Amino acid sequence: MTDKTKAILLMAATALIWSSGGLAIKLIEWNPMAITGVRSGLAALTLAVLFRKRLHFCFSPIQWGAAIGYAGLLITNVVATKLTTSANAILLAYTAPVYVALLAPWLLKEKTRKSDWVFIGVTVGGMTLFFLDRLSPSGLWGNIIAMGTGLSYAVFTLCMRAQKDASPVESVIMGHVLTALCGLPFMFDALPSAESWMGLLYLGILQQGVSLVLYTWAIKRLGALEAILIMMLEPIFNPIFVAVGYGEFPGLWAVAGGVTVIGAVTLRGVLGALRRPPAL
């Protein structure tokens, strides 16, 4: 088996592992802040061990900015998954490129193309469809918080771009530590069951820890277009796993919104990859 084939398989495995997070979070009966805190504590320890020989913490403002963005992503995603459908939580998180396109001209001095404005318009239109389903108060707040996941992901992305060729691992570990500290006060109201602890161990060690090792190895051996298309498995399989394992189904408007958002994000990523000059 060639390295390219291994990279494709490992990237697909990474996407499927990440997509399983929604089901695991749904099945764990505990405070969402406690869930994200324990998950991140375990993930930080796992990543610190796995990457111990290559870590370089400079604690610059940009590195802290990326860490705060990542912590926001982790917290809002778990809380949103508990409040609204897992499909809404993951699909609204994929609106991050909208915020990147809006903020990059001011923060990174990157030009916004006319095609970017079309993408923004289509994606925002898709976002509004999520709110047309009949939502409970908690579901409405879950959707709003899920939009915060997209914004947090954008902050992380912009800060990593500002660091140029810096590794994201240090900022990810710092983000996990911040998340664990935020979740700490919520861990003592009640203890989770043994089954929930198994889910927490899975989320922290495998879903957030080992998966990053697979991703960093595979991404270096794949083209941008291949990586974009393979990672689209995550938002597709996340609601499928939840539907099969938890019996939760998104509304029809959410499905329409999800198709619109994921279609726009994928098309923009594909066109961007095709515009890049081939590596020499």
**Regions with little confidence, pLDDT below 50 for 5+ residues:** none
How much helix, percentage-wise, in residues?
Answer: over 70%
On the 0 to 100 scale, the average pLDDT is 91
Compute the number of strand runs: 0
From N to C, what is the helix and strand string? HHHHHHHHHHHHH
Shape: globular
Total helical elements? 13
* Main sheet specs: none
Strand proportion, as a percent range, falls in under 5%
Distance between the termini: 24 Å
Based on CA atoms alone, the radius of gyration comes out at 18 Å
What structural category do the secondary elements indicate? Answer: mainly alpha
**Count of discrete domains:** 1
How are the secondary structure elements laid out?
Blueprint: H1 3-19, H2 21-27, H3 32-50, H4 61-83, H5 86-93, H6 96-107, H7 114-129, H8 137-162, H9 169-183, H10 194-219, H11 224-231, H12 233-246, H13 252-275
Give a verbal description of the structure.
The model has no long low-confidence stretch (mean pLDDT 91). The radius of gyration is 18 Å and the shape is globular. The relative contact order is 0.23. It has 280 residues and is mainly alpha-helical. The protein is built from 13 helices and no strands. The chain has one domain.
